[in-house]
Automatic annotation (TrEMBL):
Top-rank taxon, per record: Eukaryota
Xref: InterPro entries: LRR_dom_sf (IPR032675)
SUPFAM superfamilies: RNI-like
Protein name: F-box domain-containing protein
């Protein structure tokens, strides 16, 4: 049997660790494909990290070349392990993706930052619930990955006195950016660079009024390269979002998701924001609600939003998604034109 066919068959067992382990013992020809699935994703926590480190440090270990992704979780509920053991993971030569969740109250230690920076082949980095000593640490870390394509940053750091340009630059290959932090600091720094990475997928979580001027300039700078924009929760900026942001510059936009409430202010804001869309390739809008509600007070706002979704330039759109925890059955009643045109889709959260 050709080895390519054997590899393809083993690929179908990617979710069965016991079968993969058995395959890896059959022959040397089966070994690489089975090990690829068994060890490509190393999920580590306080319980299994010490044994995994012992495994890759052992003299006869053959695991290290197969690890592509490190998913590390460190929290205060158990003993902290990242500071003491994370440096041992630098012996993994093929890592291209790291996810680190550090839900402790203290900042990420210098040794952990230094270790992270050593993975200079990363194309994907996710930092969640992390705390930095200062914004300079954030800048230095991001600049350590010249091939980075995807950055997820959920973190805190003290307010800097100023946003200073850096000698090194963020990766020019950055395409996906998720920010749940002081996003004005990050975006203002990006805008100081000679050229801004062409991010096509952008998520802004926790947007507030102080962020809007920088976010507006960043969206304008991205222009037509931005194809997906997600604002999961719109809170205090509901009255100013549609006036401070201008999506008409993003002529390549294909997808927009916003998290709103079913009251007059939010529905008016959603309509005003969508009316800015000037992209001929715009294909889908997703409106996320806690609950879909109807009534005399909001009937006109629902009707105007529905009409907008079905008139040019949005009439070429193929999907209008309502994502909600309750009231999903009301979606077709509040958006009847979209329902009749068969573009309305409802998803329960």
């Amino acid at each position: 049997m050709p080895p390519e066919l054997i590899d393809s068959i083993i690929d179908h067992a990617h979710a069965d660790p016991a079968l993969l382990a058995a395959c890896s013992l059959v022959s040397k020809a089966w070994f690489p494909a089975a090990r690829h699935h068994l060890f490509s994703n190393a999920k580590l926590d306080a319980k299994n990290a010490p044994s995994f480190v012992n495994l890759i440090d052992s003299t006869f270990s053959t695991v290290a070349p197969f690890v592509r992704h490190i998913d590390a979780k460190d929290n205060c509920e158990g003993s902290r392990w990242v500071d003491s053991l994370f440096a041992n993971l630098t012996s993994l030569p093929s890592v291209t993706s790291i996810s680190l969740i550090s839900s402790c109250d203290s900042p990420i230690s210098q040794i952990t930052l230094f270790t992270l920076c050593s993975f200079d082949r990363l194309v994907e980095l996710k930092l969640a619930e992390c705390e930095f000593g200062n914004f300079t640490e954030v800048q230095q870390l991001i600049c350590s990955f010249p091939m980075l394509q995807s950055l997820y940053l959920e973190a805190d750091w003290p307010e800097p006195n100023s946003i200073d340009p850096t000698v090194a630059s963020p990766s020019p290959h950055l395409r996906e950016l998720y920010l749940r932090c002081e996003m004005s600091h990050v975006l203002a720094w990006f805008l100081t660079q000679p050229s801004v990475a062409p991010v096509s997928k952008l998520t802004l979580h926790g947007l507030d009024a102080a962020d809007l001027p920088v976010v507006s300039l960043y969206l304008q700078t991205l222009g037509p390269v931005l194809t997906h924009l997600t604002i999961p929760h719109i809170g205090s900026v509901v009255d100013s979002l549609s006036t401070d942001l201008n999506l008409s510059h993003n002529t390549g936009l294909r997808y927009l998701q916003i998290g709103i409430d079913a009251d007059i202010a939010y529905l008016c804001m959603a309509r005003a924001l969508l009316s800015q869309v000037a992209s001929p390739s715009f294909d889908e809008v997703e409106l996320s609600f806690y609950s879909v509600r109807q009534g005399p007070k909001v009937a006109r706002q629902w009707a105007e939003l529905d009409a907008l979704l079905n008139t040019p330039p949005l009439s070429s759109m193929t999907r209008a998604t309502i994502s909600t925890m309750s009231g999903s059955s009301l979606a077709k009643e509040v958006l009847p034109l979209s329902y009749e045109r068969n573009i309305l889709h409802v998803r329960r959260q």
